[in-house]
Amino acid sequence: MNAMTTDEYRTVYWPKLERAIEHLLTQNPMEHISISYEQIYSHVYKCVCQQHSELLYNDLMWKITSHLEQVSSELQASPPEHLIENFNVALTQYTAALHCIVPVFIYMNKFYIETKLNRDLRDDLMKLFSDHVAEKHVSTLLPLLKKAHSMPFQVKPSTMASVVKGLYALRPDWVPLAPALFSRFIPQIHPPALESQLPYYAAQDKKLQLELSQNGFTRGDQSRKRASEES
């Protein structure tokens, strides 16, 4: 294998990898990509073997950070009523991109990130999303999520669950900011209930039933529905 100079890495290999990463991050079906997954893996393999692991890792992190800063700016401009849905789209798209990016960079992960940095590529890339996107919007997202949760079907339940579970996966220490909200979607997030707390939980359940009835969901309606279904 011929030696790869830093200049060759910069002018030949990284531009191809950068275009491939951009495509994976945006997944625009109308945009043609002239590099295959096998080629990406092959280029990564050669860069690592030619002692350019640190350069490649830093470029990858820079590229994805730049993309996430753009994503965050777009979310910043999003109207409040669309922020939950738009955040969910951004997180879902990014997670899907990592399913492709991490495997093709597996050689760099194994022989540089795990060996020399004692970390994992996917963990590093999820931390980038946490630092550059979620961290900047969580203070706005949580009040919107709590409000949406108190008004059934204002936001699709699947979207609510996806965003709350996503925030928890990114930063479990955000739970104290909205414990009731997280506990609705994350099983066993709180310690087992004590008998002395049962009146509190009963009051919370009564409050929820009241909120549902105020929004048109009554126990009587549900009972009639079930009765008609059974008949």
UniProtKB/TrEMBL annotation:
GO molecular function: protein kinase binding; ubiquitin protein ligase binding
Superkingdom as given in the UniProt entry: Eukaryota
Name of the featured protein: CDK2 associated cullin domain 1
Family indicated by similarity: Belongs to the cullin family.
Region annotation Disordered: where it falls in the sequence: 212-231
Any one biological process term the GO annotation gives: ubiquitin-dependent protein catabolic process
InterPro entries reported for this sequence: CACUL1, Cullin_N, Cullin_repeat-like_dom_sf
Alphabetized SUPFAM superfamilies for the sequence: Cullin repeat-like
Domain (Cullin N-terminal) ranges: 14-208
Ranges of biased composition (kind: Basic and acidic residues): 221-231
PANTHER family cross-referenced by the UniProt entry: CDK2-ASSOCIATED AND CULLIN DOMAIN-CONTAINING PROTEIN 1 (PTHR46636)
Protein source organism: Cyprinus carpio (Common carp)
